[in-house]
Amino acid sequence: MTGAWRSRSLIAGGAITLAMIAIAIVSLVWTPYSPTAMDFLHKLAPPSAAHPFGTDSFGRDVLSMIMAGAQSSLAVALIAVAVGAGIGVPLGALAAARGGLLDDVVMRACDLAFAFPALLTAVMITALAGPGAVNAMLAIGIFNIPVFARVTRGSARGIHARDFILAARVAGRGDAAISLIHVLPNIAAVLMVQATIQFALAIVADAGLSYVGLGTQPPQPSWGRMLNEAQTFIWRAPLLAVFPGLAITLAVLGLNLLGDGLQDLLDPRLRRAR
Amino acid sequence: MSDPPLLEVGGLVREYALPRPHPFAAAPRLRVLHGIDLKVEAGEGVGIVGESGSGKSTLARAVLALEPPQAGSVRLRGMDLFALSRRELRAARRHVQAVFQDPYGSLDPRQRVGRIVAEPIAALEPGTGRAERRRRVADMLRDVGLPQAEGKYPHEFSGGQRQRIAIARALVTRPALVVADEPVSALDVSVQAQVLTLMADLQARLGLAWLFISHDLGVVRSITARVVVLYRGRVVEEGPTRAVFAAPAHPYTRALVAAVPRVGRVRAPTSLPAEAAPPGAGCPYSVRCPRAAPRCRAEAPVLTRANGRGVACHFPG
Amino acid sequence: MLDVGSLTVALPMGGRLVPVLSGVSLALARGESVGLVGESGSGKSMTALAIMGLLPPGARVAGRIMFDGADLLAADEAQMCALRGRRIAMVFQEPMTALNPLQTIGAQVAEPLRVHERMSRRSAAARAGELLARVGLAPPRATPDLYPHQLSGGQRQRVVIAMALACGPDLLIADEPTTALDVTVQAQVLDLIAGLAADSGMALLLITHDLGVVSQTVDRMLVMYAGRVVEQGPTAEVFAHMAHPYTRALLAASPNEAGGLPAPISGQVPDPAHRPLGCAFAPRCARAERDCTRAPPSLVGGGAHRVACLHPHVAP
Questions:
Q1: Are C291 and C284 in contact, with CB atoms under 8 Å apart?
Q2: I need a labelling partner for B249 at 20 to 30 A (CA). Which of A30, A97, B9, C50 fits?
Q3: What is the sign of the dihedral through the CA atoms of B305, B309, B311 and B317?
Q4: Are B188 and C269 in contact (CB < 8 Å)?
Q5: Taking residues A214-230, what's their average pLDDT?
Q6: C256 has pLDDT over 80
């Protein structure tokens, strides 16, 4: 029974995530209307056949904006996670392989980074460096580094305790080769699960930054800014806030389900391998 | 002048740092090996026997140049392993390989057997061509009785078969010495006998020397010609395996031999007090020894050799 | 007191039920010690788990397990819980995993007393101190307020034994209790278990792969192979007149006093899903003939010594 539930969450999560990626790709070449085209005759229109999600205060088509908004959400989250993993994973692997002082320094640096509230500091960084999608990516990415470093180091230490690492050292492999050849393939599952979780968090962070105007800049639509703009009209057009809110919720839910499913899919293999 | 022995360990001391009691204290040190001397000649099978805490695995790691000692040397054919440059050490590693205890932990679960067995060639003989590497791996797997295993993953094999794969990996660079740390203690009796037979056969055929580390006297007795008994990081007795087990000179060796459960023999009631702390200056075994005299508690005995046997005891017999 | 009859257990593996135990019968009287010998995959641990009612979910069980007149196969989980730890206790191979690292050994020995006997905190603690002394952990060498990590492997196993003995069980099942211990410590722990069993009149079921341990510790023994009992009898008699080729092969494969290489048994223990039709040992057996491959032989023999083999070395 639990097995069926697991594969269900994997399928549902995978489907939602794939759908989101597909929408982002389609929106590059086609949206029902241009997401930036204003139509003041039909502003704040309720959902209809012409505008399935209605229009906003400038008469832009909400469906088109949501579709195009997926682009920036995905791009920001993807690069933020890539930055975090690209720096955090090697740091964590190195700390686990070398141990000693290097390990202490890296881990204390992670503790220090964790002591700052991530979103507030991201706000500060973008406020200092100037608003914009690229700065948002870097600001969110920086806070992914310690997360990946810690997870990598923790799982890698478990692998380092196994005899096949000793055998590789007897076979003359150095720390870097051992990390690449033996450690990373054995912790890839854990890292993938962590990546989906961080991806979901990055989407929320991006929405937050855009909401306060520090993320993706107009006219490029973004889910966070749509929420911000909708709040002015919350009594006249409540649905205007519902659609971007739902988009964020669905994306995060999909990624979390995918992470759960992946964890359960990859876990038994790790257990059997012991 | 005669050739230097294949392996010569001299005065090996290994200490580990313990956690500091408070941040400003010096880390206390635990001495695991108290000056070990050991010699292995080419083609010889030498057993290291000891219980947990005797330092036998630490000795193995030092011989494999995995952890540097605080004092003493490990010489392979006269070369001090810890004085070598990185490149020279890599060249030396071809001649010393290892088999570990846990057949489930010693093979990377994500790699196919072919790649696992080829790893020492890939790392230690990088100039080897692909075809030659493949041929040598195939030959080696056939030698250990697992032909055509290259494409499979470790989890498709039983514990005994995995240990054969580990042996193939250890022998693929044609080493002169293989350090085997409890290689059969995780295996079932019938499989244990298969692996021991294979190891003895390979020793005879390839002229290998084994440094065979085990807590199991029966296993050591069956595969080694010479044995070294360790107690709390010191050699307490050494000599030809048969002679040592037939007439142990050190009281500890005698207790070990008597404790092994044997079919058809009534076990002598155990009189040894359980684990006790080692004393400062005296013989480390004196707390457990039925023959301990005041001298034993005051002065540690040194290993004295005669007629190919050695014992570290004030009152051997 | 314990009566296991024609016990058959099948476990779900790869979508179908695979028999891991086939017709295992075993009786234990009060004060008796019986050894269950076999290699991994022989079903010796599965037999113990079946008696304890701890089989993995999905297991299909047939046969009979009676304990002091009660049918354990019909007992529900609440009844088994009341029995486990109180009347039937178990000692496992790895003492560290059986102990809670965050509790003192005194508290852990006292726990079954508080749960099963509803003793007060104070009297449970006093009793725990006595039990620890009985297994050789008396002050000044060890006190009840030590934590597991402060003890050696042998001392930890003594704590586990003290926990098992806390409620004065009628049956102690010890599954490879000394395999993880050093030889000299192993001998002490075996002596302790055998001595406690003899003193308290409890029955002992000792599970091990080591023929030497069996020979020196128990009154009666059963040799298991591939889910069946292949030979059984009084220990001395079995060793004096080994009848089953597997028992002999197992002894020959064990490292021996004489030195020299032990004789390997060719082949492997068959995987439970692909056991041969006839005698499971036939493919590895030097004495196998054509009739061995037809049906698994059943245990035969006039007296207490019985063997399941069509061509035994000696007729028991």
A1: no
A2: B9
A3: negative
A4: yes
A5: 82
A6: no
What is the average pLDDT score of chain A? 84
User: Quick one: tokens of B222?
Assistant: 């069956």
What pLDDT digit, counting tens, does each position of A146-203 carry? 999 999 999 999 999 888 999 999 988 988 999 999 999 999 888 988 998 898 888 8
Alpha helices, DSSP H only, in chain C?
Answer: 44-52, 77-83, 95-98, 105-116, 121-134, 153-165, 183-200, 211-217, 235-240, 245-253
Is B64 in contact with A163 (Cβ distance < 8 A)?
Answer: no
Cβ-contact B284, B300 below 8 angstroms: yes
For the stretch B205-232, what's the b/e string if a residue is b when 16 or more beta carbons lie within 10 angstroms of its beta carbon? eeebbbbbbbbbbbbbbbbbebbbbbbb
The tokens of B291 are what?
Answer: 């023959």
Q: Is C2-87+212-307 a domain of CATH 3.40.50.720?
A: no
Q: How many CA atoms lie within 13 A of C61 on its CB side?
A: 24
Among candidates B101, B104, B119 on the partner chain, residue whose Cβ is nearest the Cβ of A171: B119
Quick one: which of C70, C96, C95, C102 has its CA closest to C84?
A: C70
Interface test with B, best of A104, A160, A162, A170 (most B CBs within 10 A): A170
Closest by CA to B121, choosing from B65, B175, B199, is B175
CA–CA distance, B232 with B146 (Å, rounded to integer) = 39
C278: number of Cβ within 10 Å: 18
Measuring CA to CA, how many Å separate A39 from each of A217, A233, C52? 21, 17, 76
Residue A21's φ and ψ, nearest 5 degrees, are -65, -40
Is B117 touching A (CB cutoff 8 A)? no
B→C contacts (Cβ < 8 Å), by residue, are: 51-52, 158, 160, 188-194, 196-197, 200, 215-219, 221-223, 241-242, 245, 255-256, 259-267, 269-270, 272, 274-275
Distance CA C25, CA C222 (A): 10
Contact A163/B at CB under 8 A: yes
Residue type, B150: E
With cut-offs at 50, 70 and 90, classify the pLDDT of residue A54.
confident
What confidence score (pLDDT) does residue B70 get?
A: 94
Kindly list the distances between the CA atom of residue C226 and the CA atoms of B194, C19, C231, C311, in Å, as whole numbers in the listed order.
19, 10, 13, 18
- Residues in A closer than 8 angstroms to B96, CB to CB, are 170
pTM score, whole prediction: 0.84
Tell me the backbone φ, ψ of residue C166, rounded to 5 degrees.
Answer: -50, -45
CATH number attached to the domain at A56-155+187-273: 1.10.3720.10
C61 sits in the region (left: phi over 0; alpha: psi -120 to 50; else beta) called beta
Nearest Cα of chain A lies from the Cα of B107 at a distance, in angstroms, of 5
ipTM score here?
Answer: 0.83
Distances (CA, A) of A94 to A159, A174, A177, A195, A274: 13, 12, 11, 19, 24
Domain boundaries, chain A: 56-155+187-273
| CA B77 to centroid of chain Cα atoms | 18
